[in-house]
Amino acid sequence: MKELLAILVLAACTSDTGDRESVVPLTDSGSATAFPPASSLRVCGVTPATHVSGRGLGDLEIGGSVDEIRRLCNVVRDTVVQSDEATNERVLDVGVAGDTLTAIVESGKVWRIELDRSTFRTSDSLGVNTPLRRLLEHPGLRGFEGEGVLYVAAPSLCGLSFALSYIPADQEHRVTWTHADLRQLPAETRVERLLVIGCGNR
To answer: What pTM was estimated for this model as a whole?
Structure first.
């Protein structure tokens, strides 16, 4: 996944020239922890006008420290899970405006943010359930496969990648899906998950 995200960042910021298995709750000392009920005071910097960007959502941003996220947001779970690549990764589940976002942590900082519901969207209304045809309006849209999922990114959507509902058949696998390739996908293809991965080098 890390290699795929690095490719997506490069694709999204360059011009045209799965289910997890919970392992164990975690604290900074490595012991199990349980969090108190969410406080309405920790709103994570989100208002009705807040949109998802390549940096994140409100105070939940790529590069933010775990301590900072705990102070500003409602962290409802801090645990270690097994990723699709069978490696352990630290995950924060963050309650924001009635939804729960997933923040993947590396070296004590947020490395990736995942949204799997349509509660939050970009400034031009892109998000979960957006039809692929909307994404195809962005020049340079390209697709990349990872762990059986087809992700797309574009230079004008820097820091964002979109996991599609379409599952490539065995004979369709390819290194890169071009804009023309993506145009051939079924009309009902939609976004199933939105990933915030940050702009620039990782």
So the answer is: 0.80
